[in-house]
Design a protein that fits this description.
Chain lengths: 295, 426
């Protein structure tokens, strides 16, 4: 390697290393602080020691998490809700996107426009009317084996899942992708006698794995009902048995905040997402690149 | 084939829909009514010791009768009010709930609460600041009280040559100002006093508005509860604001100090203005701790009064809820909460049952300060707005904003809110 190449690489890698460190510092701080007492965390705050596992170290904060929070219950709830919203979201939104992209029916453009228009409204502006709505929605429950009509979805899993299955952005992504598929495939399937549903399931879905991966990842990462669910369950779920992991963070903010325990808890709830990211790293990057950033 | 796929999809969707109630059937519902169940909500999720006392009360209550069964649902404190407000919106309030003392008038005015139906021999023994009263009716009772004091070390004050104040002879403003100068000058501390300024929210009105009241100002005109003009931006309030700001501009106090009196605990600040919940950790750290009365700025020393209390909701099973309270408000449980949380027991008899608050207890002075100095935050539904506005503009004052401008702006917002709500019933 000659000097010019080394210099060029230096110009590339030095800024990249600085940027990587900049983004990694909060995570390194979180893990280091999770091993320290609150007193130690504040004592180290004004030096590089804040990012290093030095001083009075122990796993006491991790043990304390289990005294304060029903961790496994919260984690199980989040995994269940995330799975349900994502799985049903893929089915419902892809079918909706398919109907909008490939089927010809009256009012299709208007419906697509209305769906896209809902993206303008931030979730925070609709949450209060949504709470009022779900508090009065009907449901068929069971008293033994007898069906009973009930009203109100609050304090259930379904209130955390069903309102978030349909997602306008997911529909948009599916519709855009399906539009790009060759029309001849469907025509060939039609000649062979396949109907719309069979064509969708046997032809379109197998050819659309990239968009399914993109939507799945975006749903897990950005939906207000999945991994980062906080405000919605806070307002609609009163039972501790049904709370997700993010609400659990608030358990550590009492009269005086237990900072070491907070750091231990958020380290514990970050680990599953880090594992998912490492396993699906390539798909993550492609999904962000193809869909752009969206909150 | 097409129909078979459609049926599969329909079955899958229906299965998911039915999974919801099946799973939810494992959980407790939360709605107040006379249905044989008493649903209790509390603000202390994440405080296992405190919850354990409440569970003990519930166990004793459930075992004492067969008419109703109580069950507790704890919420995290920082988001508790939002959860209660959402439940009120959807008509899903429980039978009993905890409420922070200053919020009692607002929730009573909003129709969330009903007056308590408890005998005088039970409520009469509680500290006045633990009773949630709105327009002469009792809506809530608290097991404990909290008290702020000046945390200091005897060795530091002696080094600085500062007189140690007593409840009979607290510091005057001049003495306090001199003490702050002395502990930074002679004792060499970076800051004289730690106000935990990062702990925004209710801490600001709870901790700092008593200084304003000791100067002669207030958050609202308590003769009418209809305006803050004249009391929150008058000459006394201006004097408070200028004095308070001066502590930060003179670098006697850190405008960005962490919560929990951490600057004091780290040895950066010589003293702290902090609550009694931080007393035992301070004693563990320093063997010469003093918990001193607040200074008298002209109208007597003042500290904030009113902590978390139990209230009965408007839709509750009235008889069952009040019956539960009668069990819960025994001295035994008042003492047990104090032992587990470190907070001040609300009755004298309970204080004698505790480790630290009895006549010879090392935190007994907190009971005395509470009795002598506790000033309730204004008992008006407007308090929720007052607290938010006061916190915002006190932050401006701490960070160097013009004091009169900040106070006038606070007054304008508070008075506009009171007008918009037709005086909140006053």
């Amino acid at each position: 390697m000659n000097a010019a190449t080394a210099a060029r690489r230096g110009w590339t890698y030095v800024p990249m290393t600085v940027l990587a460190a900049f983004f990694l510092f909060p995570i390194v701080f979180m893990v280091a602080a999770s091993l320290k007492t609150d007193h130690q965390i504040f004592a180290d705050m004004n030096s590089l020691k804040a990012f290093l596992p030095v001083g009075d170290l122990s796993l006491a904060n991790y043990a304390a998490v289990f005294d304060r929070v029903p961790f496994w219950r919260f984690l199980g709830n989040t995994l269940f809700v995330t799975f349900m919203v994502t799985a049903f979201g893929l089915i419902v939104n892809s079918m909706c996107g398919y109907a909008l992209a490939r089927m010809r029916w009256k009012g299709r453009g208007l419906v697509f426009g209305l769906i896209i228009a809902t993206l303008i409204l931030p979730f925070d502006t609709t949450i209060v009317p949504m709470v009022y709505l779900v508090a009065n929605l009907p449901w068929v429950g069971f008293d033994g084996l007898t069906p009973v009509l009930e009203f109100g979805w609050l304090n259930t899993y379904r209130v955390q899942i069903i309102p978030f299955i349909v997602n306008a952005f997911s529909i948009f992504l599916f519709a855009q992708y399906f539009t790009s598929l060759p029309k001849g495939l469907e025509e060939a399937a039609a000649i062979d006698g396949a109907g719309w549903l069979r064509t969708y399931w046997r032809i379109i879905v197998p050819l659309s794995k990239p968009v399914f991966a993109t939507v799945a990842i975006l749903t897990v990462v950005t939906s207000p009902a999945t991994w980062n669910a906080y405000l919605w369950p806070l307002m609609t779920v009163q039972s501790e048995e049904l709370r997700p992991v993010m609400v659990g963070v608030q358990y550590f903010f009492q009269l005086d905040t237990a900072w070491g325990e907070v750091m231990a808890y958020i380290t514990m709830i970050t680990v599953p997402m880090v594992i998912v990211f490492l396993v699906f790293q390539r798909a993550f990057i492609q999904s962000i690149a193809s869909a752009g950033m969206k909150d | 084939m097409q129909r078979r796929h459609l049926i599969k999809l329909a079955a899958a969707s229906g299965g998911a829909a039915l999974a919801g109630p099946a799973l939810a059937a494992c959980t407790t519902a939360g709605s107040g009514s006379s249905d044989g169940e008493l649903v209790l909500w509390s603000h202390n999720a994440g405080s296992p010791l405190e919850i354990a006392v409440t569970e003990d009360i519930i166990k004793a209550f459930n075992g004492s009768q067969d008419a109703v069964k109580a069950a507790l649902e704890p919420f995290p404190q920082d988001v508790y009010n939002d959860s209660v407000n959402a439940a009120a919106l959807s008509g899903d309030l429980p039978d009993l709930l905890t409420v922070d003392g200053p919020n009692v008038p607002n929730w009573a005015w909003a129709g969330h609460l009903q007056p308590l139906d408890l005998p005088e021999e039970i409520t009469g023994k509680f500290l006045p600041s633990t009773l949630g009263i709105f327009q002469d009716q009792l809506y809530a009772v608290g097991h404990w009280e909290a008290a702020c004091s000046v945390f200091a070390r005897q060795s530091v004050l002696e080094t600085a040559g500062v007189r140690i104040p007593t409840i009979e002879s607290p510091w005057t403003r001049e003495e306090f100002d001199d003490a702050l100068e002395a502990v930074t000058g002679k004792a060499g501390y970076e800051y004289a006093i730690d106000f935990s300024t990062a702990d925004t929210g209710e801490w600001y009105p709870y901790a700092f508005s008593p200084f304003l009241q000791s100067f002669g100002g207030d958050l609202i005109d308590r003769s009418s509860y209809l305006k803050s003009d004249g009391v929150l931006n008058g000459p006394e309030a201006l004097a408070w604001g200028q004095w308070f700001q001066g502590l930060f501009t003179a670098k006697l106090a850190n405008p960005d100090s962490p919560g929990g009196a951490e600057d004091f605990m780290q040895g950066k600040a010589a003293m702290a203005f902090h609550g009694n919940w931080g007393a035992l950790p301070a004693i563990d750290l320093y063997d010469d701790m003093l918990f001193l009365p607040p200074p008298d700025f002209g109208n007597g020393p003042k500290i904030g009064g009113g902590s978390w209390q139990w209230a009965v909701t408007a839709t509750a099973d009235k008889a069952g809820a009040n019956s539960w309270l009668e069990t819960a408000l025994s001295d035994e449980y008042v003492a047990e909460y104090a032992n587990q949380t470190g907070l001040i027991p609300a009755t004298d008899a309970a204080a004698e049952l505790t480790e630290h608050y009895g006549t010879d207890g090392k935190l007994r002075m907190m009971v005395d300060y509470s009795k002598a100095y506790a000033t309730l935050r204004p008992e008006t539904p407007a308090y929720t707005v007052i607290a938010s506005v006061f916190g915002q503009y006190t932050g401006d004052i701490i960070h160097g904003g013009d004091v009169q401008t900040a106070l006038d702006a606070a007054v304008a917002e508070i008075d506009a809110d009171i007008d918009a709500n037709s005086g909140y019933g006053f």
